[in-house]
Specification:
The protein has 134 residues and is an alpha+beta fold. The chain has a single domain, classed as 2,3-Dihydroxybiphenyl 1,2-Dioxygenase, domain 1, CATH 3.10.180. An 8-stranded mixed β-sheet has the order 2-3-4-1-5-8-7-6. The longest helix has 11 residues. The two termini are 15 Å apart. The structure holds zinc ion. The site of zinc ion has 6 residues, from strand 1 and strand 5.
């Protein structure tokens, strides 16, 4: 696979409305998009930092994966997303062939029109890893 850059860093927060002012007023970033991704049960807020984005994730459902993550670990970094230049499906099957455990066997639709696929943190030293393409 060919990784071009870190597309975004996903950060789990209890509440977007409470978290956005830190990024805007303290870090001086601008929230340019708030979007609900229904099939992942999350509300997201995005900030651009060079080529990379910060993606804040609030659970839209008390049983969602973000809610469960915060119950276990508290708010904080949730995943790292790498932009792959040669296709998410290619990359997923390539790493599966190298013995990496996948959460997604095939790319699916994520926020901002990206195709995304997750690798299991069991195979990535505990870092939930997302591969994505435009
Ligand atoms: Zn993400």
């Amino acid at each position: 696979m060919k990784i071009s850059h870190i597309e975004h860093i996903g950060i789990a927060v209890k509440n977007l409305q409470d978290a956005i002012p830190y990024y805007e007023n303290i870090l001086g970033l601008k929230c340019y998009n708030v979007e609900e991704v229904a099939d992942q049960k999350v509300k997201t807020a995005f900030f651009q930092v060079g080529q990379t984005k910060i993606e804040l994730l609030e659970s839209a459902d008390p049983e969602g994966t973000i809610a469960k993550f915060i119950d276990k670990k508290g708010e904080g970094v949730h995943h790292i997303a790498y932009a792959v230049a040669d296709g998410v499906n290619n990359a997923l099957s390539e790493v599966a062939g190298k013995g990496v455990q996948l959460i997604d066997k095939q790319g699916r639709k994520g926020a901002e029109g990206l195709t995304i696929g997750f690798l299991h943190p069991k195979s990535t030293q505990g870092v939930l890893t997302e591969l994505c393409e435009k």
